[in-house]
Amino acid sequence: MKNYLFLLVAILFETIATSSLKASEQFTKLIPSLITVIGYIAAFYFLSLTLKTIPVGIAYAIWSGIGIVLITLAGIVLFKQIPDLPAIIGMLLIVAGVVVINVFSKTSAH
């Protein structure tokens, strides 16, 4: 269970870093640029802890699925980037795939 907590922390750092990347305006703003670099370092550190026990494919599927949803929410709130219906449907399919992997795959149990 601790490894899934590490994965969640990695995803949160990645979400913060990616949101800051947009705000950094191609690394021309210092504070968002620093948040981006520090956030990605922290995200990959916690992801590396996760990979000690969770298979890389499973961890990346969870990372991608949850990350897409969180980045989309950050885009809506911070940047007023509203996804259209096909984008929302696509994201729901990705999340459904992550759920299927975690509920039904024996790979995720390793």
From TrEMBL:
SUPFAM superfamilies: Multidrug resistance efflux transporter EmrE (SSF103481)
GO cellular component: plasma membrane
Keywords noted in UniProt: Cell membrane, Membrane, Transmembrane, Transmembrane helix, Transport
Main location: membrane
Compartments where located: Cell membrane
Topology within the bilayer: Multi-pass membrane protein
GO biological process, one term: glycine betaine transport
Source organism superkingdom: Bacteria
Recorded GO MF terms: amino-acid betaine transmembrane transporter activity; antiporter activity; choline transmembrane transporter activity
Chain ranges passing through the membrane: 27-47, 59-79, 85-104
InterPro entries listed in its UniProt record: EmrE-like (IPR037185), Small_drug/metabolite_transptr (IPR000390), Small_multidrug_res (IPR045324)
PANTHER family per record: MULTIDRUG TRANSPORTER EMRE (PTHR30561:SF1), SMR FAMILY PROTON-DEPENDENT DRUG EFFLUX TRANSPORTER SUGE (PTHR30561)
Family in the record: Belongs to the drug/metabolite transporter (DMT) superfamily. Small multidrug resistance (SMR) (TC 2.A.7.1) family.
Record protein name field: Multidrug efflux SMR transporter
Organism: Flavobacterium microcysteis
